[in-house]
Amino acid sequence: MTAFDDYLDTFAGDPGYLNWAAFGPLSPGVRAEAFADADLLASMRPASHALVFDRAAQAREVIAGMLGADVDEVTVQPSSTHGLAHALYGLQGAVIASSAEFPSVSITLERAVQTAQGGISARWIAPGDGRVTPDAVSEALDDEVTALVVSHVDFRTGYRADLAALRELIGPDRLLIVDAVQSFGIVDEDFSAADVVAGHGYKWLRAGRGSGFARYSAFARERIRPVLSGVAGTTSEGLPVDALPPAAASARAFTVSAPDHLAAARLTVGAAEVRDAGVARIEERISAHVDEILEIADRHGIPVSSPREPARRAGIVALAPAELGRLAAALANADVSVTARGDTVRLAPHAGTGSETIRMLDDALSGFGNETFIGA
Ligand SMILES: Cc1ncc(COP(=O)(O)O)c(C=O)c1O
Predict the structure, then answer these.
(1) Which atom of ligand 1 is nearest to the CA of 200?
(2) Ligand 1 pocket test: which of 98, 154, 179 has the largest number of ligand atoms within 8 Å of its C-beta?
(3) 367 has pLDDT over 90
(4) Which of 74, 100, 358, 376 could form a disulfide with 130 if both were Cys (CB 3.0 to 4.6 A apart)?
(5) Which atom of ligand 1 is nearest to the CA of 202?
(6) Which whole-number Å values give the CA distances from 55 to 34, 51, 62, 162, 264, in the listed order?
(7) Residue 234 shares a structural domain with residue 132
């Protein structure tokens, strides 16, 4: 048994779950850690509490290792949106973003613009297919642009942005801010192309909510003012009472209050599990499942709107059927869990998705096709 086989074995449970891009049911290791650490916090022994209070530092270490970053550059956050907010509120100048981004990007940027009263402006782009390609960005690029914020993998189209190409396009003097929620832990990416990377543990890392994190490079810390910095983000190592110390030089500046230790414990375990299994192997296995799903969709004549090239996709397949409501109902009736929103049905397999789940999908789509035929 390899570490990867052990990892796959942790996906036991009812078949039919294809909604990892929305929520990842907790891994057994994460679940056990949550109970064990809750017990430690429930004791009256300070030494037991101290073990749990150390989890945020451990989470930062694991995440930093996976990002190839210094641990001082990494923070734990209540959510990925918090991590993005620290970056976006502290910017100056024009910021390019797609108006079709997940609202953690679009709403946060819009609020930052409103709050900055002229210091920040949004340069919205609206590529027809929703894909933030270098061509789409280059049309909006001019001397006023100081940053680009983009989802590495788009929550809706499943498109995987080419971070290296985007970095090359914007050059070294602008910030590349990346929402890695739909890729961290499942795409073997060199995130060093980005200055800010924000993610969380509640989908692909199977670590539950509250497990956000963000990395701010030295260049990011030079350019981004820590305007949302709080009591946890100062130069003071302890509680800064009767004093008003400045924000820390490290990424800690981009934190507000003490971390949620139980969430950090879950993040540590969830991230370490994908690291130990091997992100490249996880990516490969997910890609094989995506190929299976594409083959099934094609065989049933259901249009696919997400990218097909492996380099431009990750774990999301978007189906765009003519009768979305009926397809969503067919999947729900067959106990296949997906996200139906707008005009697409989003399917998201994980590495541990089993053949029974794929078969359930195939069967559900067979029924859907026949009904269409009979009804016509
Ligand atoms: C691309 C993307 N960014 C951000 C989020 C929200 O993250 P959080 O709840 O950690 O703020 C999601 C959630 O679905 C997402 O898909």
Answers:
(1) 10
(2) 179
(3) no
(4) 100
(5) 10
(6) 11, 7, 11, 33, 6
(7) yes
101 and 10 in a common domain: no
Question: Which residue lies with its CA nearest to atom 13 of ligand 1?
Answer: 22
170 and 299 within one domain: no
The string of DSSP letters for 184-244 reads: TTTS---GGG-SEEEEESSSTT---TT-EEEEE-HHHHHHS--TT--GGGBS-SS--TT--
Contact 132, 124 (CB under 8 A): no
How far is ligand 1, taken at its centre, from the CA of residue 52, in Å? 26
Same domain, 325 and 359: yes
Residue 309: CB partners within 8 Å, gap ≥ 6? none
pLDDT digits (tens, 9 = 90+) for 7-64: 999 999 999 999 999 999 999 999 999 999 999 999 999 999 999 999 999 999 999 9
Express each pLDDT in 120-176 by its tens digit: 999 999 998 999 999 999 999 999 999 999 999 999 999 999 999 999 999 999 999
Specify the CATH number for the domain of residue 52. Answer: 3.40.640.10
CA 333 to chain centre: 29
Give the pTM: 0.97
Same-domain check for residues 39 and 158: yes
pLDDT band at 255 (very low <50, low <70, confident <90, very high): very high
pLDDT digits (tens, 9 = 90+) for 57-70: 999 999 999 999 99
Q: Which domain holds residue 287?
A: 3-25+278-375
Instruction: Give yes or no: residues 207 and 99 share one domain.
Output: yes
- CA 350/CA 19 separation, integer angstroms: 9
* CATH number of the domain within which 7 lies: 3.90.1150.10
Last-in-domain residue among 221, 249, 276: 276
